Fold:
Amino acid sequence: ALCICNCAHFYAVCSLFSYGGIMSADMGWAVDRDHAGNIAGFLQSANVLGRIPTSFIWGCFAERWGLRAGLAMAMSSLMVGGLIFGFCVDATGAVAVRFVFFGMGNG
Structure:
């Protein structure tokens, strides 16, 4: 089960690398395809930046309630964030979803 969770986590976080630039250009978030990499970079950076303020909190959570509860909460955050990210139509909302659900909810 832990291996499946790790694979799902890796896919949810890193799959954006393969389609982020093209998605940014196609959704109209970037001026053209040459600038789409900037938006794709913001999307992935939001994920990492969201982990900074909450990593300590998630460590305390796992210590108090257990690793299994922490893993369940993180996977739930990835699931909800993935669904919401799929329905985002603007770049600001997409970055916010990546920050909150993929970053803060996954510290």
User: Anything to note?
Assistant: The two ends are 20 Å apart (CA to CA). The mean pLDDT is 90.
